[in-house]
Structures are given as C-alpha cells and as structure tokens.
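Side project, low priority. Logging it here so it doesn't get lost.
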Amino acid sequence: MTSVLDHTAPTSSTLRRVGAAAATLALLATAGLLLDQSGSARAATAIGFGEADSFAVLGGAAIKNTGTSTVVGDIGSTTITGDDDLTADDILLAGAKNPSSAAQAQLDAGNAYTVTAGQGPAQSIPVELAPAAALPPVLPGVYSSPTFEITNTMTLDAQGDPDAVFVFKAASSLTTGSSSKILLTGSAQACNVYWQVGSSATLGTNSTFVGNILAYASVTLTTGADVVGRLYASTGTVTLDSNTVTRPGCTTPVTSTPGNTPGTTTPGATATPSAPATGGAP
C-alpha cells in the first residue's frame, strides 16, 4: 500500500503548467483590481485651464526641441530653444509662440495643477496600468498611485458619456514604455483626461499618449512619441524630440470645476503650485 505521505517529484511539464496558472491568476487579479477600482472610483469633474486653454505646451523653465516636431496649439515659456524661427527644420507650429496671454496662462496652469491634485477622494490602483494589452478598460473616476507606468495598451471607456472625466494622480512620476498606447472608447474624449504628476513625466519612444499632463517638474517626450493633450511643466522643462502634440478640443461643452473659471486666477499669484507631499499617494 502506498502511504498518503508519499510524494512523487513533479515533472518539468507539471511545473510549467503551475507557473503558467500562477501568472494567469496574477494577471486576472490585477485586472480585477482595475475593474473594481474603476467601478467604485469617485466621480471626477472637468478642470478649467483659463488662459492656458489654448496652449498645447507650457514650460515653467523652458521648452527644448530636437528634430522636427509638430505642435497644434500655442506654446509658451521664458526660454524656447531648438525652434529657431519655427521653421520646417524644427517646430512646425499651428498656433502662437508666447502670445500676450502666456504669463496669465502660466498662472492658470499652476491653478489647474492644484485643482486636479485636490480631486477625490481617489481610489488607489496599481502602479502598472497596462501590464498586458488584454486588460479590461478603465472607467471614469479619480485614481491615485505613488507612480504610474504604462507598458502596453491602456483603454479608457466613457460608457457612452462624452462628458465623462478621468483623473490620474501620481505622487511621483509617470512613465510610458516604447510603443505603448492609450485608447479611447465609449465616447471618451482626450480633453477630459487629466494626469497630475508630482514630479516628472517621460513618454517612451513611438508611444501614443492621450490626456493633459500637469507635471510639477518636467515633461519629456522621447523620439517619435505623439500626444493628443496638453503638456504643462510647472517648474521645469518640456523636452520634445521629433514629436506631434495636438491640443484636444471637446465636441460637447464641459462644465469646469467650481472656482476654476477661465481668467479668475488672482493677478500676481505664483504660477508654481505647492510642492507635492512625499511618501504617499495624493
């Protein structure tokens, strides 16, 4: 009789099946968490940009460009390098360079950062937002994490509501991988997607990004990264490298957060938002 305590060493094929099952369970657990948080996240409200609304790129310290980049919208900073006279060899600009509204736009962009940071309470979600292309879509709401990473394809689903808002708050950084993508479905609009970043954002080579980045420090686009959204760096530099940045427009009117009506930022107020807290999610 064979004792119930006897054990037969598992074969290599058995070990492979166990490993694959564990990986699948881990992926499903992550997907389930995203679905659960998406379904229970507090409703987000749209953020008004004031005079910054017409700007696709705003740099608190500078805007630097390498290669030929296309920007659809205004650009503004005290220092803009690599653009020469905005010729075809540098930045192809469908908008204005440092228009008269640029100074107020910097103030209003700082205000938008602060208003976005105050949305919530936020639901905590994993750092990695797209570990696999097959993950379920994220629904409207306010989400937070110490940092955000997008490795593959992330889908945002407005569920048929074009006014639905997505707010993502990173205490530290936002990083996307090479060739990663953000897709919109269910009438979602790029103008209603906000990324509040406590330090800096870096978008990977040939990636496709959607939404308005409001970074406390810098925003860096590596070669070939394309954005439908706005790039605002409160204290640092926006760096471009052969990119296309398109300021988004909403197809339906958007109701802004109360107290953030265009043009209401107090004149003379600092454009720099409060430094983000460290050691935890927003």
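Brief comment: The helical segments are 12-40, 102-117.
Revisit when time allows.
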